[in-house]
Amino acid sequence: MIQNSLRRVYLLPLVSIIACCTLNYCESLQNSLATKQLRHSYTKYAQHNSFQVWQQRERNEIFLLKDTKDKNEETSSYKNSDSSSKGIVSSLTGIVNLFMGEGAEETSNDSEAVFVGAPPASPKDLLEKIRDDYVVNNYLWTGDIFLPAFEKECRFTDPTLSFVGRDKFVSNVKNLTPIVGFLTGDGDASKEGGGCRSELLDISVNEEEGYVQTRWNMIGDLNKLPWNPKIDVIGRTKFWYRSGGNSAQSTGVEDGLRVYLYDEEWEIPASRALLQLVTPGGTIKNSLE
Prior knowledge:
The chain is an alpha+beta fold and 289 residues long. The protein has helices at 2-26, 36-43, 50-61, 83-100, 104-114, 123-135, 139-142, 166-184, 270-275, and strands at residues 150-157, 162-164, 196-206, 211-221, 230-243, 257-266. Helix 1 packs antiparallel against helix 4 (83-100).
Protein backbone atom coordinates (compact mmCIF):
# COMPACT_ATOMS: atom_id res chain seq x y z
CA MET A 1 0.00 0.00 0.00
CA ILE A 2 2.79 2.43 0.92
CA GLN A 3 4.70 1.55 -2.23
CA ASN A 4 1.60 2.16 -4.34
CA SER A 5 1.10 5.57 -2.70
CA LEU A 6 4.70 6.56 -3.35
CA ARG A 7 4.39 5.52 -6.97
CA ARG A 8 1.39 7.80 -7.38
CA VAL A 9 3.38 10.72 -5.96
CA TYR A 10 5.98 10.13 -8.65
CA LEU A 11 3.48 10.37 -11.51
CA LEU A 12 3.47 14.12 -12.19
CA PRO A 13 7.26 14.61 -12.22
CA LEU A 14 7.69 11.36 -14.10
CA VAL A 15 5.28 12.43 -16.84
CA SER A 16 7.17 15.74 -17.13
CA ILE A 17 10.51 13.94 -17.44
CA ILE A 18 9.12 11.59 -20.08
CA ALA A 19 7.76 14.50 -22.13
CA CYS A 20 11.03 16.41 -21.88
CA CYS A 21 13.17 13.42 -22.85
CA THR A 22 10.92 12.50 -25.77
CA LEU A 23 11.10 15.99 -27.22
CA ASN A 24 14.85 16.31 -26.69
CA TYR A 25 15.52 13.02 -28.42
CA CYS A 26 13.44 14.11 -31.37
CA GLU A 27 15.84 17.00 -31.95
CA SER A 28 18.39 14.54 -33.25
CA LEU A 29 16.10 13.15 -35.94
CA GLN A 30 16.00 14.46 -39.49
CA ASN A 31 13.40 15.78 -41.94
CA SER A 32 10.25 17.70 -41.05
CA LEU A 33 6.88 15.98 -40.89
CA ALA A 34 4.73 18.78 -39.59
CA THR A 35 2.92 21.40 -41.63
CA LYS A 36 2.12 25.05 -40.86
CA GLN A 37 -1.38 23.97 -39.98
CA LEU A 38 -0.11 21.71 -37.18
CA ARG A 39 2.15 24.48 -35.89
CA HIS A 40 -0.83 26.81 -35.72
CA SER A 41 -2.91 24.22 -33.84
CA TYR A 42 -0.37 24.25 -31.01
CA THR A 43 -0.22 28.04 -30.65
CA LYS A 44 -3.38 28.28 -28.57
CA TYR A 45 -1.88 26.02 -25.89
CA ALA A 46 0.97 28.46 -25.30
CA GLN A 47 -1.17 31.46 -24.40
CA HIS A 48 -2.14 30.68 -20.81
CA ASN A 49 0.77 29.87 -18.51
CA SER A 50 4.49 29.32 -18.44
CA PHE A 51 4.23 25.52 -18.51
CA GLN A 52 2.22 25.60 -21.71
CA VAL A 53 4.65 28.12 -23.19
CA TRP A 54 7.40 25.62 -22.47
CA GLN A 55 5.32 22.87 -24.07
CA GLN A 56 4.86 24.95 -27.22
CA ARG A 57 8.57 25.66 -27.55
CA GLU A 58 9.54 22.05 -26.97
CA ARG A 59 6.87 20.61 -29.27
CA ASN A 60 8.17 22.70 -32.15
CA GLU A 61 11.25 20.49 -32.02
CA ILE A 62 9.19 17.38 -32.61
CA PHE A 63 8.61 18.52 -36.17
CA LEU A 64 12.11 17.33 -36.90
CA LEU A 65 10.96 13.75 -36.33
CA LYS A 66 11.78 11.71 -39.39
CA ASP A 67 8.85 10.37 -41.37
CA THR A 68 10.56 7.05 -41.96
CA LYS A 69 9.45 4.74 -44.75
CA ASP A 70 10.34 1.25 -43.63
CA LYS A 71 11.79 -1.29 -46.03
CA ASN A 72 8.53 -3.15 -45.65
CA GLU A 73 5.87 -0.53 -46.30
CA GLU A 74 3.06 -2.67 -44.94
CA THR A 75 4.42 -3.14 -41.44
CA SER A 76 7.22 -1.90 -39.21
CA SER A 77 9.23 -4.40 -37.18
CA TYR A 78 12.24 -4.29 -34.92
CA LYS A 79 14.47 -5.16 -37.88
CA ASN A 80 13.37 -2.34 -40.16
CA SER A 81 12.31 0.47 -37.79
CA ASP A 82 14.59 3.49 -37.42
CA SER A 83 17.23 3.57 -34.69
CA SER A 84 16.06 6.93 -33.31
CA SER A 85 12.62 5.56 -32.45
CA LYS A 86 14.26 2.59 -30.75
CA GLY A 87 16.46 4.96 -28.76
CA ILE A 88 13.51 7.07 -27.60
CA VAL A 89 11.46 4.11 -26.38
CA SER A 90 14.40 2.29 -24.81
CA SER A 91 15.39 5.38 -22.83
CA LEU A 92 11.85 6.19 -21.72
CA THR A 93 11.32 2.57 -20.65
CA GLY A 94 14.43 2.83 -18.52
CA ILE A 95 13.22 6.08 -16.93
CA VAL A 96 9.81 4.62 -16.12
CA ASN A 97 11.31 1.48 -14.61
CA LEU A 98 13.75 3.58 -12.58
CA PHE A 99 10.87 5.46 -10.96
CA MET A 100 8.35 2.66 -10.77
CA GLY A 101 10.66 -0.34 -10.56
CA GLU A 102 10.42 -0.81 -6.81
CA GLY A 103 7.07 -2.55 -7.40
CA ALA A 104 8.22 -4.66 -10.35
CA GLU A 105 9.06 -7.78 -8.33
CA GLU A 106 5.84 -7.51 -6.36
CA THR A 107 3.86 -7.10 -9.58
CA SER A 108 5.47 -10.15 -11.11
CA ASN A 109 4.77 -12.28 -8.06
CA ASP A 110 1.14 -11.15 -7.91
CA SER A 111 0.67 -11.98 -11.58
CA GLU A 112 2.17 -15.45 -11.08
CA ALA A 113 -0.26 -16.08 -8.25
CA VAL A 114 -3.26 -15.02 -10.31
CA PHE A 115 -2.37 -17.00 -13.42
CA VAL A 116 -1.24 -20.31 -11.94
CA GLY A 117 -2.21 -23.37 -13.91
CA ALA A 118 -1.12 -25.72 -16.64
CA PRO A 119 0.04 -24.47 -20.04
CA PRO A 120 -2.35 -24.85 -23.00
CA ALA A 121 -2.65 -28.46 -24.14
CA SER A 122 -3.29 -27.77 -27.83
CA PRO A 123 -2.93 -25.01 -30.44
CA LYS A 124 -6.66 -24.33 -30.19
CA ASP A 125 -6.38 -24.01 -26.41
CA LEU A 126 -3.45 -21.60 -26.80
CA LEU A 127 -5.47 -19.53 -29.27
CA GLU A 128 -8.31 -19.21 -26.76
CA LYS A 129 -5.94 -18.12 -23.98
CA ILE A 130 -4.44 -15.46 -26.23
CA ARG A 131 -7.92 -14.33 -27.26
CA ASP A 132 -8.81 -13.85 -23.59
CA ASP A 133 -5.64 -11.81 -23.06
CA TYR A 134 -6.98 -9.26 -25.55
CA VAL A 135 -10.72 -9.42 -24.94
CA VAL A 136 -10.83 -9.99 -21.18
CA ASN A 137 -7.48 -8.80 -19.82
CA ASN A 138 -6.82 -5.83 -22.13
CA TYR A 139 -3.20 -6.98 -21.98
CA LEU A 140 -1.74 -4.44 -24.41
CA TRP A 141 -2.37 -1.84 -21.70
CA THR A 142 -2.25 -3.96 -18.52
CA GLY A 143 0.40 -6.61 -19.19
CA ASP A 144 -2.01 -9.29 -17.92
CA ILE A 145 -1.04 -12.30 -20.01
CA PHE A 146 -1.75 -15.95 -19.23
CA LEU A 147 1.69 -16.68 -17.77
CA PRO A 148 1.70 -20.49 -18.10
CA ALA A 149 1.38 -20.05 -21.88
CA PHE A 150 4.77 -18.29 -22.07
CA GLU A 151 8.25 -19.61 -21.44
CA LYS A 152 10.03 -17.75 -18.67
CA GLU A 153 12.80 -16.83 -21.13
CA CYS A 154 10.44 -15.91 -23.96
CA ARG A 155 11.79 -13.21 -26.30
CA PHE A 156 9.50 -10.20 -26.81
CA THR A 157 9.96 -7.87 -29.78
CA ASP A 158 8.05 -4.92 -31.21
CA PRO A 159 9.27 -2.21 -33.62
CA THR A 160 11.06 -0.33 -30.82
CA LEU A 161 12.14 -2.91 -28.21
CA SER A 162 13.54 -6.44 -28.05
CA PHE A 163 14.31 -8.24 -24.81
CA VAL A 164 14.16 -11.63 -23.11
CA GLY A 165 11.96 -12.39 -20.11
CA ARG A 166 8.26 -12.98 -19.57
CA ASP A 167 8.33 -11.27 -16.18
CA LYS A 168 10.16 -8.29 -17.64
CA PHE A 169 7.35 -7.86 -20.19
CA VAL A 170 4.72 -7.93 -17.45
CA SER A 171 6.72 -5.49 -15.33
CA ASN A 172 7.35 -3.05 -18.20
CA VAL A 173 3.66 -2.80 -19.07
CA LYS A 174 2.37 -2.72 -15.49
CA ASN A 175 4.80 0.08 -14.59
CA LEU A 176 3.14 2.15 -17.31
CA THR A 177 -0.41 1.42 -16.15
CA PRO A 178 -0.64 4.14 -13.43
CA ILE A 179 0.91 6.68 -15.81
CA VAL A 180 -1.61 5.84 -18.52
CA GLY A 181 -4.42 6.03 -15.97
CA PHE A 182 -3.16 9.45 -14.92
CA LEU A 183 -3.05 10.73 -18.51
CA THR A 184 -6.44 9.33 -19.47
CA GLY A 185 -8.15 10.54 -16.31
CA ASP A 186 -9.49 7.07 -15.63
CA GLY A 187 -7.19 6.30 -12.73
CA ASP A 188 -7.29 2.68 -13.87
CA ALA A 189 -6.34 2.10 -17.49
CA SER A 190 -7.50 -1.50 -17.31
CA LYS A 191 -11.11 -0.97 -16.24
CA GLU A 192 -13.92 -1.82 -18.60
CA GLY A 193 -15.12 1.14 -20.60
CA GLY A 194 -11.97 3.13 -19.81
CA GLY A 195 -10.01 5.28 -22.21
CA CYS A 196 -7.61 2.48 -23.15
CA ARG A 197 -8.61 -0.70 -24.92
CA SER A 198 -7.21 -3.61 -26.91
CA GLU A 199 -9.48 -4.44 -29.83
CA LEU A 200 -8.91 -7.89 -31.34
CA LEU A 201 -9.56 -7.66 -35.08
CA ASP A 202 -8.55 -11.18 -36.10
CA ILE A 203 -6.95 -14.31 -34.67
CA SER A 204 -5.84 -17.56 -36.30
CA VAL A 205 -3.46 -20.47 -35.76
CA ASN A 206 -0.90 -21.95 -38.17
CA GLU A 207 -0.26 -25.41 -36.76
CA GLU A 208 2.13 -26.35 -39.56
CA GLU A 209 4.60 -23.57 -38.75
CA GLY A 210 3.71 -23.33 -35.08
CA TYR A 211 2.31 -19.89 -34.32
CA VAL A 212 -0.87 -18.03 -33.40
CA GLN A 213 -1.30 -14.75 -35.27
CA THR A 214 -3.43 -11.81 -34.21
CA ARG A 215 -4.36 -8.47 -35.72
CA TRP A 216 -5.37 -5.81 -33.23
CA ASN A 217 -6.04 -2.14 -32.63
CA MET A 218 -4.51 -0.48 -29.56
CA ILE A 219 -6.48 2.65 -28.66
CA GLY A 220 -6.01 5.16 -25.87
CA ASP A 221 -7.34 8.70 -25.38
CA LEU A 222 -4.86 10.79 -23.36
CA ASN A 223 -7.43 13.37 -22.33
CA LYS A 224 -5.38 14.95 -19.53
CA LEU A 225 -2.89 16.43 -21.99
CA PRO A 226 -4.01 19.80 -23.39
CA TRP A 227 -3.58 18.84 -27.05
CA ASN A 228 -5.66 15.65 -26.55
CA PRO A 229 -3.42 13.08 -28.24
CA LYS A 230 -4.74 9.65 -29.08
CA ILE A 231 -2.83 6.38 -29.31
CA ASP A 232 -4.31 4.50 -32.25
CA VAL A 233 -2.06 1.77 -33.62
CA ILE A 234 -3.04 -1.28 -35.65
CA GLY A 235 -0.61 -4.15 -35.36
CA ARG A 236 -0.03 -7.84 -35.88
CA THR A 237 1.57 -10.29 -33.48
CA LYS A 238 2.86 -13.81 -34.02
CA PHE A 239 3.05 -15.99 -30.93
CA TRP A 240 5.54 -18.72 -31.87
CA TYR A 241 5.03 -21.79 -29.70
CA ARG A 242 6.58 -25.18 -29.02
CA SER A 243 5.92 -28.17 -26.81
CA GLY A 244 7.38 -28.19 -23.31
CA GLY A 245 9.75 -25.26 -23.68
CA ASN A 246 13.24 -24.76 -22.33
CA SER A 247 12.16 -23.89 -18.80
CA ALA A 248 9.53 -25.76 -16.79
CA GLN A 249 7.06 -23.75 -14.74
CA SER A 250 7.31 -23.70 -10.94
CA THR A 251 4.36 -26.09 -10.78
CA GLY A 252 6.52 -28.79 -12.28
CA VAL A 253 4.25 -29.17 -15.30
CA GLU A 254 6.38 -29.82 -18.37
CA ASP A 255 3.81 -30.81 -20.99
CA GLY A 256 1.68 -28.47 -23.06
CA LEU A 257 2.52 -25.59 -25.38
CA ARG A 258 4.36 -22.40 -24.53
CA VAL A 259 5.21 -19.28 -26.50
CA TYR A 260 8.97 -18.84 -26.94
CA LEU A 261 8.89 -15.84 -29.32
CA TYR A 262 6.49 -12.90 -29.26
CA ASP A 263 6.93 -11.00 -32.53
CA GLU A 264 4.92 -7.77 -32.87
CA GLU A 265 4.68 -5.50 -35.93
CA TRP A 266 2.80 -2.26 -36.55
CA GLU A 267 1.03 -1.15 -39.72
CA ILE A 268 2.67 2.28 -39.58
CA PRO A 269 6.35 3.21 -39.11
CA ALA A 270 7.46 3.41 -35.50
CA SER A 271 8.30 7.10 -35.89
CA ARG A 272 4.73 7.92 -36.91
CA ALA A 273 3.35 5.95 -33.97
CA LEU A 274 5.50 8.03 -31.61
CA LEU A 275 4.25 11.23 -33.23
CA GLN A 276 0.77 10.35 -31.99
CA LEU A 277 1.97 11.27 -28.49
CA VAL A 278 2.72 14.88 -29.41
CA THR A 279 0.03 15.69 -31.99
CA PRO A 280 -3.74 16.16 -31.57
CA GLY A 281 -5.79 12.96 -31.81
CA GLY A 282 -6.49 11.90 -35.39
CA THR A 283 -3.54 13.75 -36.92
CA ILE A 284 -1.51 10.59 -37.47
CA LYS A 285 -3.50 7.78 -39.07
CA ASN A 286 -3.25 4.25 -37.71
CA SER A 287 -2.45 2.77 -41.11
CA LEU A 288 -0.59 3.69 -44.29
CA GLU A 289 -3.67 2.80 -46.35
